[in-house]
Automatic annotation (TrEMBL):
Transmembrane segments: none
Name of the molecule in the record: FAD-binding oxidoreductase
Source species of the chain: Antrihabitans spumae
Superkingdom to which the source organism belongs: Bacteria
Keyword Thylakoid listed: no
Occurrences of domain FAD-binding PCMH-type (ranges): 92-273
Short name of any one Pfam family annotated for the protein: FAD_binding_4
InterPro entries: Alkyl-DHAP_Synthase, FAD-bd_oxidored_4_C, FAD-bd_PCMH, FAD-bd_PCMH-like_sf, FAD-bd_PCMH_sub2, FAD-linked_Oxase-like_C, Oxid_FAD_bind_N, Vanillyl_alc_oxidase_C-sub2
Entry keyword Flavoprotein: yes
Keywords assigned: FAD, Flavoprotein
Family classification: Belongs to the FAD-binding oxidoreductase/transferase type 4 family.
Amino acid sequence: MKWNAWGDPALAKPLSDRILTLLTSVFGELQHVDTPDAADVVLRPSALTPDDIAALTAAVGAENFSTADADRLPRAGGKSTFDLLRRKSRDVQDAPDAVVLPATDEEVAAVLAVCVERRIAVVPFGGGTSVTGGLEPIRGDFAAVISLDLHHFDQLSKLDEVSREATLGAGLTGPAAEALLAEQGYELGHYPQSFRFATIGGFAATRSSGQDSAGFGRFDDMIRGLRVITPEGVLDLGRAPKSAAGPDLRELFSGSEGTFGIITAVRLRVHPVPAEKRHESWRFPDFATGAAALRAVTQNGTGPTVIRLSDEVETGLNLAMTDKIGGDQVSGGCIGMTVFEGTADQVNGRHETTRAALLAAGGESLGDEPALAWEHGRFDAPYLRDGLLANGALCETLETATDWGNLDRLKGAVTQALQATLQETGTGSIVMCHISHIYPTGASLYFTVIGAQRGDPIAQWQRAKNAACDAIMANGGTITHHHAVGADHRPWMDQEVGELGVRVLRAVKAAVDPTGILNPGKLIP
Ligand SMILES: Cc1cc2nc3c(=O)[nH]c(=O)nc-3n(C[C@H](O)[C@H](O)[C@H](O)COP(=O)(O)OP(=O)(O)OC[C@H]3O[C@@H](n4cnc5c(N)ncnc54)[C@H](O)[C@@H]3O)c2cc1C
């Protein structure tokens, strides 16, 4: 993964002339962006003392410890627009004081013990794809901060075909985990857009939601067990599929974002690799009609694996940027996608009942082509953001969820807040939205925002992001449906869970991490 951009450098693409023309026609002249090379970046020097280094090296071995800039820089943050803009700075950049790569639970425990004793903060690092400041190297009240990289935890340690459960190491990336399961005919079916780089531990720590959530559920729905190493001891959670033995502690540690402990292994529900797959694309006259159609599908439980709906703006921009989506068949309205998986009988049944529900709700079939094209390119869009940021545009995504009855109000309020604040910073904006995760009682809303950089783009986006978060809270949304809280959403956590809820989270933290070394400045206000 690149230190200052998304993904695999070999897949990076410069912006096409078509997109550059579109940008200047909407936003006018774009400001020049200075993009330093890695060699020009200055990191704050490591604050670890020789005794700290000796103790950490003793815990993991010299080959698994580094204070080199080349190791610290790629772990200096995640992949939000804030992170990527910070990487462009020629001022001294924050970075962890060292990178530590334990390979066993015992080594993790030893590292935590050193950090408690020597007052060093710990930021767990999975795939490095956080978009909410979850990886910011915040020292807090501590003398130094290390990045604890989980990538040695890369085993499929158990596959129980009878129970259809697999125990996977926290450091396995999405593709690595799926490859190990596929060798034995199984899959997880968890495909967030960050799939190629994010890890099993990161998915659990952030309650990730993949594009196939309609069929296979969110990642937290798949969790059957967790192994968590805390400064106070080890937790093996999940004795049975369900239990009435009090509150479910798996739920407490899912989404704990490295603040309660280090997840080293996750036991997950798996399913046989589906035998059949079918695609169908849709056009709806407007977003409200499309949303009502998706609601009918989820409330009747007709079983698509993927179902998504772009609003009018997202549909229009996709059509303007590519010839592929929808071809000549679409002008105006909103495009939707469906994918069905399972045995041949299951696919037939799921497709026919979903199709009937969408047709009855005002959908018009566009055949399989646009849905196949979407699936083919479904991990590519983030590369576009790098080109936009490098060419003087602003681009970021944010997300929330609410009940169906409140969806329109929330969408309108967030759109308006983004447009108004970006206007105040001197740029027009394109605010697009889609639904990609649906439930019988509600759905997520995923916004993509494009504007022009004017002056300091970090300050500019912070203003817009603050306004969007305020609008989310004032209009009945959750501060995050799947991106997690990190440092960026933390100021809204007291509104999300209430003052007593914050005290509950702090009490849990005090029990498992009394010195507070684990990921300070994240999640818990
Ligand atoms: C382009 C792009 C697309 C994305 N698309 C989606 C999407 O479709 N759906 C979605 O849900 N999210 C998405 N995300 C957000 C991100 O990929 C997820 O939050 C992902 O689950 C993080 O996994 P990771 O392994 O990269 O974790 P990291 O980014 O390394 O860490 C995330 C947080 O979890 C903590 N953490 C990581 N591993 C562990 C561990 N083993 N134990 C304890 N704490 C740990 C970290 O300290 C940090 O606070 C996207 C991000 C990007 C950049």
